[in-house]
Design brief:
elongated; 2 helices; 6 strands; alpha+beta
């Protein structure tokens, strides 16, 4: 991509998708994460992860909607590095730290350590003038189980 303004706009649009993804999981409607993907989009956690892989918006919607209703989470995104690879494609790597508990009743939860620290590798594609995730691959070098919130 030779036009600096087009490159900047592509980078910003893709960075916004990275942030919208975690916002929808943490503060919005988790099932709506599927709308950030292309129709044939893929989310996967390859080995040494558990091998989960979901392809297509319907499968993604079902997967993200299965999030427990009593789960409280906050993801911190950093080191978002977007690289346009053509006028209609881009790649990114971004780091995440996840704080999460299940059994949340609405009360404030005492802070604890993060349950995950890892990074995403993303591929973006421009579709009908807008940018979407074509694939997201999760890499998790630091992870553990989700604790239960303490009872008030």
């Amino acid at each position: 991509m030779s036009n600096p303004m087009e490159r900047l706009l592509a980078e910003r649009a893709c960075e916004r998708l990275v942030l919208d993804f975690v916002h929808r999981l943490d503060l919005g409607d988790p099932a709506s994460v599927a709308e950030l993907f292309t129709e044939d989009g893929v989310w996967e956690w390859p080995p040494p992860g558990d091998g989960r892989r979901f392809a297509g918006r319907d499968a993604l919607r079902t997967y993200f909607a299965s999030r427990p209703a009593d789960r409280l989470s906050r993801r911190i995104m950093s080191n978002v590095r977007v690289t346009p690879t053509s006028p209609d494609t881009a790649e990114a790597t971004s780091y995440f730290t996840t704080y999460r508990v299940d059994g949340h009743t609405g009360a404030m939860v005492p802070p604890g350590p993060p349950v995950q620290v890892g990074h995403y590798e993303d591929v973006f594609r421009r579709v009908d003038g807008g940018w979407l995730l074509a694939s997201r691959t999760l890499h998790l070098p630091f992870g553990g189980g989700t604790p239960r919130a303490p009872r008030p």
